Amino acid sequence: MTTQPLTDLPVRKLSIDLASGFARHWHGGDAYRSMYFNALSMSFPVGEQFFIDSVRAGVAVLEDKPQHAALRALCVQFIGQESTHRHLHGLYNRHLEGQGLRNRWQHWAQRRVERCRRIGLSPLNQLAVTAAYEHFTAALADATLRYQWMEGAEEKLQRMWNWHAAEEMEHKTIAFDLYRVLGGGSLRRIAWYVYVFAIFATESSWQTLDNLRRDRSLWRLATWGSAWRFWCGGQGMLRRCTGPLLAYLRPGFHPDDDDNRALSAQWLARYSAYWTRLK
């Protein structure tokens, strides 16, 4: 592993106008890709808030020692980045509602969060769940930038999804490292990952299908041709993400085993005119 230690996570404001809306099939006229990424966005506001709360809970029990100062500072910046993601995807999702889509995923996720609160899920378990979801998003983010999954999309949405991807790759280690510093082991981490894998695969599929049904594109041949290419094509999900997703099951895994931070940095540098640093 050659990645240099992470020392800074800038909190950025993205220059983007979501108030003017966007096309129903914003991803180059492709119904499937548009509705799949719409489904992902629908999960983000509740999910990002859970991640924020989990990291805050972890930091609250982190011993106040000099060796933890850098991680504590990165956790504050992680929360700032996730807060901006939550805000923008909330605006995005409101426009989807105006298009007639129904966000069912947010309710499924909110019920799970409330159940965690009722049973008093420990900070360590919350962080294990967060680290699992963060690995999912980091793997998808890598493929989004590396294989140009947003190519052909409406410019401002291409910008938003690529920016989100770059930041997910940038902060992919934070929840994981906090989990380990607090004493989290591989067995708990892997067990929660298997659970998260099942939940994510099921709910992303159901929400995408519901989006397509409400869009009246579910039974079109072109929709399923696109789905096949997205999942099974040469640059598709199964080919490009299966290995990175399964890597999390290794007992000795660390997110920086995949040394891809430079890909994130390249995008952020190339499109620096699109964002300003807040802190």
Descriptive overview:
The structure is a single chain. 67% of the residues lie in helices and 2% in strands. The longest helix is centred in the first third of the chain and has 30 residues, at 31-60. The protein is globular, with a radius of gyration of 18 Å. The model has no long low-confidence stretch (mean pLDDT 96). The protein has a two-stranded antiparallel sheet. The two termini are 29 Å apart. It has 10 helices and 2 strands.
Q: What's the gist of this structure?
A:
With 279 residues, the chain is mainly alpha-helical. It has helices at residues 31-60, 69-98, 105-119, 123-146, 155-170, 174-181, 186-215, 221-232, 237-247, 261-270; strands spanning 12-14, 275-277.
H/E order of the elements?
A: EHHHHHHHHHHE
| Beta-strand segment tally | 2
- Distance linking N and C termini: 29 Å
Rg measurement, Å: 18 Å
What topology, given as strand order, has the largest sheet? Answer: 1-2
Per DSSP, the total helix count is 10
- Mean model confidence by pLDDT: 96
Shape assignment: globular
Provide the β-strand percentage band: under 5%
Low-confidence stretches are: none
Helix/strand-derived category reads mainly alpha
* Largest beta-sheet characterization: 2 strands, antiparallel
Tell me roughly what share of residues is in helical segments: 55-70%
